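Example 4.3 (complexes with small molecules)
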Amino acid sequence: MLGGGQLGRMFCTAAQSLGYRVCVLDPGADSPAGSVADRHLLADYLDEAALAELASLCRAVTTEFENVPSRALEFLAGRCIVSPAARSVGIAQDRIAEKAFIRDRGEATAPYSPVLRVEDLGEVAPQLLPGILKVARLGYDGKGQAQVTTPEEARAAFERFGRVPCVLEKRLELEREVSVILARGFDGDCISWPVAENVHVAGILSTSTAPARITAALSGRAEAAGRRIAQALDYVGVLCVEFFVTTDGSLLVNEMAPRPHNSGHYSIDACVTSQFEQQVRVLAGLPLGATHQHSQAVMLNLLGDCWHTPGGEPPWAEILAHPQTKLHLYGKSEPRPGRKMGHITVLADSPAQATKVAAQIAQTLRIV
Ligand code: ADP
Ligand code: MG
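Answer. The structure with magnesium ion bound is encoded below.
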């Protein structure tokens, strides 16, 4: 596993449940995945000696960190099984390449334009305003984004980001956001999970409700678009495609993540096969597991903001007194605001019950 975050940690435990041993390569000493892995190579992603050691220890390598340099994946690809491929990860890492790829395949996106030089803003700004200027690379959880309403604000934001390549995207009236997570094997076999409905607060995922409260026709369209994108990428592994549903009813692709995704965490407790077990199955060349949901689910992200008393913990016993509530903590010691510390999945027999219990827990934790 390249990357030591919580996604890597959940992959490790899924792999270990299937009897595998996992080696994590990550530059952080105290990483969520490194602390549960069988081996932790404490090294930079481009450290060739460490990558060579990883390849010699492992039959197959994957990533949990979408900003892993694609050169690292290329280096490994000559030595062991690697999924996803460097090309897929390279496209998903760059909003300009990603949006162009999606559009060229005939999928709808929000109106946008690449911004490579400040002059690019002059030509395109009016019809894309009010908009969001987003850095093309290394942005996540709403970081590297600026809301802009005038060309001057767009230029100021571009300067503030250090004139790095960006996209200017029209700000849309969203009815909701949904995501499709799917897995595609080396043999091209492809399976998706029920569509999740996601609420972001300040650019960070706050809750996912699954299945999404949308028509079967709309979820069918989202799943079909996700599959078309996976196929066009010749993608192997677990892929997330995020969508906007606008108030005028359009379904637009927002972005993709070449890995398991925060909005698929509900699959651990609510589905026959989790997104992490599926990533293991793909890497190991095993058949894909069934993805259907056996319980309604609402997932709440636990950000550091939920730790209200310094040095103390949230009232876990009170939360777990709801008997169908599953708590996942990622082993991070410092609960900083905006930091993903864990998540809770509320299971229920009906959507109304899942929503009700999730609202009670959100209130206990003072989640907005
Ligand atoms: P990140 O890589 O940080 O997840 P996104 O492009 O997905 O970046 O933006 C984060 C969130 O900001 C989205 O999930 C959505 O809530 C909001 N957002 C992004 N782009 C738009 C847009 N064009 N119109 C309205 N809301 C947007
Ligand atoms: Mg996003």
